[in-house]
Specification:
The chain has 316 residues and is mainly alpha-helical. The protein is built from twelve helices and no strands. The chain has a domain of 214 residues: MetI-like (MetI-like fold). α5 runs antiparallel to α10.
């Protein structure tokens, strides 16, 4: 098992390095001067040269890349040109909204998907199965930003149960903060829950056809006992893999949903930084999102090895 972890760690590190190189090349080396983009094409040459020196663009690319990666390694993300504050301070403030929003949406999606998928598989080819598959197909077809607009119209404008947007802050209390994140989380979770429900149903139906399930039934175990003791655990293996991939979709989907609900999260920061041509903020935000997605998939690999009885230390 230690060899398995070492291999996955090596893959994690190599993936992060490759990702950082791509981000750096796209943001700072491809044609286009970041200083000129910030100041505009009509800016005086002296101002452009001064800004290039301030941003460190007058140094060789390799030196800039190593300085950037070295800074990230010790928690130094550089200075925002627009806000004139450390980039990590900006990101930290916005993560207090985006990360809870993503985790809340992920929890909603997992609970709803497992319930729907298990229910559909247990009632294969019956009315319950057809209803769940129809609902999941509708859920997959709905864009999360459009669903967010519908939720605002129904529950904020129509019923007045929620605010139409904004975030009160965690210092105002846990419930007001969670209430502000509830509608955005639902709009994010619906599509992912629909996808995961279909995966859960298919995985369970596949496991139900295995010989060990028929053997368990032949030994006298009830259908319910076989379902929960044997089928569900083995069916969770592909479900967990898909769940790790979905975290990335939720995190990137939150960028759009935050715009709909006027949430001052990481998505708003990225949009503002792109509009203001704040290269340092954009570069570090993209790298952080990549790190979170890659890290979650590494954790999924570890969980996969822990729950799969077929994976022995010699096999991995």
């Amino acid at each position: 098992m230690s060899l398995f972890i070492a291999k996955r760690l090596a893959t994690l590190v190599l993936t992060l390095i490759f990702t950082s190189v791509i981000i750096f090349v796209v943001m700072e080396i491809l044609p286009g001067d970041p200083a000129l983009l910030i100041l505009g094409i009509d800016a005086p040459d002296e101002a452009v040269a001064a800004l290039r020196g301030q941003l460190g663009l007058d140094r060789p690319p390799l030196e800039r890349y190593l300085a950037w990666i070295g800074g990230i390694a010790v928690g130094e993300f550089g200075q925002s040109y627009t806000y004139q504050v450390p980039v990590w301070q900006l990101i930290g403030d916005r993560l207090e909204i985006t990360l809870p929003l993503t985790l809340l949406a992920m929890a909603m999606a997992i609970v709803a998907a497992l319930a729907m998928g298990i229910y559909a598989a247990a009632r294969h080819n019956r009315a319950g199965d057809v209803a769940v598959m129809t609902a999941s197909q509708v859920g997959i077809s709905i864009p999360n930003f459009w669903l967010g607009i519908l939720l605002i119209s129904a529950f904020a404008v129509g019923l007045g149960w929620f605010s139409a947007g904004g975030f009160p802050g965690w210092d105002k209390g846990l419930w007001p903060a969670l209430k502000a994140l509830l509608l955005p989380a639902i709009s994010l979770a619906v599509v992912q829950a629909a996808i995961l429900a279909r995966v859960t149903r298919s995985a369970m139906l596949e496991v139900m056809r295995e010989d060990f399930v028929r053997t368990a039934r032949a030994k006298g175990l009830s259908r319910r006992a076989v379902l929960w003791r044997h089928v569900v655990r083995n069916a969770l293996i592909p479900v967990i893999t898909i769940t790790g991939l979905q975290f990335g979709f939720l995190l990137t989907g939150a960028i759009v949903v935050e715009q709909v609900f006027n949430l001052p999260g990481l998505g708003r920061l990225v949009f503002s930084a792109i509009s203001d041509r704040d290269v340092e903020v954009v570069k570090n935000c993209v790298m952080l999102i990549a790190f979170l997605v890659i890290g979650i998939n590494f954790a999924v690999d570890m969980l996969y090895a822990a729950i799969d009885p077929r994976l022995k230390p010699a096999d991995v």
